[in-house]
């Protein structure tokens, strides 16, 4: 199944945007199957496979400080095409380039404080969910609205 790891970053939590952000995915009609508030330890963030592609970047230390500066909300969402669809809802990496109507376009102003993460491929969706969630934290269920979302 296609799934996306969506994470509300510490700025989103501190700014009281948790409900607003979850609501946008929920209303779209994709399925929530994992949800927790989590304080990521610095050592874990540094070694974490999650940002391994960015380890050589000059902003990497800032990114680690940012992501460990407070609790994050970890989420697993499932649906056909959910990875691309979630990235559309999230908007461009730099909030100044993100379209109005997207989360970053509406709620953020800087790349270093862009409130939310979304997986960039179905492979990374599966991989990141396995990385951030423990066994038993991801729940398989069938929403009653399903026949009203899919013909
Ligand atoms: P994510 O959904 O968070 O992965 O963002 P993305 O896929 O739109 O961007 P990317 O994976 O390239 O970068 C991951 C995160 O690193 C971004 O969301 C930013 O929080 C941070 N980042 C990327 N580029 C910069 C930068 O130039 N400066 C700073 N301060 N942070 C950056
Ligand atoms: Mg990314």
Automatic annotation (TrEMBL):
- Write out the GO biological process terms: CTP biosynthetic process; GTP biosynthetic process; response to hydrogen peroxide; UTP biosynthetic process
- Top EC class per UniProt? transferase
Task: Give one GO term, molecular function aspect.
Answer: nucleoside diphosphate kinase activity
Job description of the protein: Major role in the synthesis of nucleoside triphosphates other than ATP. The ATP gamma phosphate is transferred to the NDP beta phosphate via a ping-pong mechanism, using a phosphorylated active-site intermediate.
Report keywords, A-Z.
ATP-binding, Kinase, Nucleotide-binding, Transferase
Give EC number(s), comma-separated.
2.7.4.6
Cofactor section: Mg(2+)
* The reaction(s) this protein catalyses: a ribonucleoside 5'-diphosphate + ATP = a ribonucleoside 5'-triphosphate + ADP; a 2'-deoxyribonucleoside 5'-diphosphate + ATP = a 2'-deoxyribonucleoside 5'-triphosphate + ADP
Q: Where is the Nucleoside diphosphate kinase-like domain?
A: 1-140
Q: What is this protein called?
A: Nucleoside diphosphate kinase
Q: Which family does it belong to?
A: Belongs to the NDK family.
Which residues participate in ATP binding? 9, 59, 87, 93, 104, 114
Domain of life where this protein originates: Eukaryota
Q: Which residues of the full protein are shown?
A: 81 to 231 of 231
Location of the active site:
117
């Amino acid at each position: 199944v296609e799934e996306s790891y969506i994470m509300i970053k510490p700025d989103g939590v501190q700014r009281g945007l948790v409900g607003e952000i979850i609501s946008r995915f929920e209303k779209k009609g994709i399925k929530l199957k994992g949800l927790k508030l989590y304080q990521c330890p610095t050592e874990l963030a540094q070694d974490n496979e999650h940002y391994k592609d960015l380890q050589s970047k000059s902003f990497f230390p800032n990114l680690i400080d940012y992501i460990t500066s407070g609790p994050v909300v970890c989420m697993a969402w499932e649906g056909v095409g959910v990875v691309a669809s979630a990235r559309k809802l999230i908007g461009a990496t730099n909030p100044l380039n993100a379209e109005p109507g997207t989360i970053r376009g509406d709620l953020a102003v800087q790349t270093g404080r862009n409130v939310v993460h979304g997986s960039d491929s179905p492979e990374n969706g599966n991989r990141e969910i396995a990385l951030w969630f423990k066994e038993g934290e991801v729940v398989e269920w069938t929403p009653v609205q399903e026949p009203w979302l899919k013909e």
